[in-house]
Amino acid sequence: MAWDIALDVRVKRNRNLFFAPAGGVLATELRSDELRGASGKHLTAVGGFIPGHRIEIDTRNKRVRVVDRLKLKEHSELLERIREHMRNSDDFMRKDLAPDFQREGCVREFERKLTGQPPNNLATWLYHCRREVEAGKLHVVRGELPSYEEIQKSADGDIYLGDRAGLTAINNDPDFDKIKVEPKLQKRNA
Q1: Residues 65-74: contacts with CB within 8 Å, 24+ apart?
Q2: Cα angle vertex 96, ends 94, 97, to 5°?
Q3: pLDDT in tens, 78-131
Q4: I need a surface site. Which of 29, 45, 66, 121 has the fewest CB within 10 A?
Q5: Run of H or E including 78
């Protein structure tokens, strides 16, 4: 399987990201230059960086997965350093840098076939990824995201915006400005 698009979660000030298509929160990358105080000191002690979630998309086979980069083999030494630091820290009650605490409330790793029905369709995932890239919350590490126009043209259904936004899906209905609406006349009571 070819995961042709990969995006890392990197939100400023080490904030996690609510991502509607995933149905929850994705963990951001923690960076010591974004922290102050004791948290920054602990993060610097383990290398100044803890990776967050990664979104990978296979556009040909219409599959998507969310991966916790901290659990990848390339970061196994870092994970062990973090655990060792937490065991040996004089501030052992401090758990905000503990990997399990950071992921608390976040979506778990998953892989799914996109069915074509919002929010589980390719157009929805690509639309939200494009939006978050433009907002500086996701960073493309592999591949290239299509433009909004390309996403809309290739849409395999409606684009789901999310329940938390209080919005409905974008669909291919006619534009509202082309619909003729006749004003209603109000009768006055005489």
Answers
A1: 65/3, 65/109, 65/110, 65/111, 65/112, 66/22, 66/26, 66/107, 66/109, 66/110, 67/109, 68/27, 68/103, 68/109, 69/8, 69/29, 70/99, 71/109
A2: 100
A3: 888 877 777 776 655 455 555 555 566 788 889 999 988 877 889 999 999 999
A4: 45
A5: helix 76-88
**Interval 133-166: pLDDT, tens:** 999 999 999 999 999 989 888 776 678 877 654 4
Q: Are 109 and 70 in contact (CB under 8 A)?
A: no
Residue with the two structure tokens 């939006």: 131
Q: How far, in Å, CA of 2 to CA of 90, rounded?
A: 45
Whole-number mean pLDDT of the chain?
A: 78
Residues in the chain: 190
Of the CA atoms within 13 Å of residue 53, those in its CB half-sphere come to: 26
- Give the contacts of 75 (CB within 8 A, at least 6 positions apart): 51, 69
Give domain limits for the chain.
5-178
Helix (H) or strand (E) holding 9: strand 5-9
Instruction: Confirm if 85 and 50 have CB atoms less than 8 A apart.
Output: no
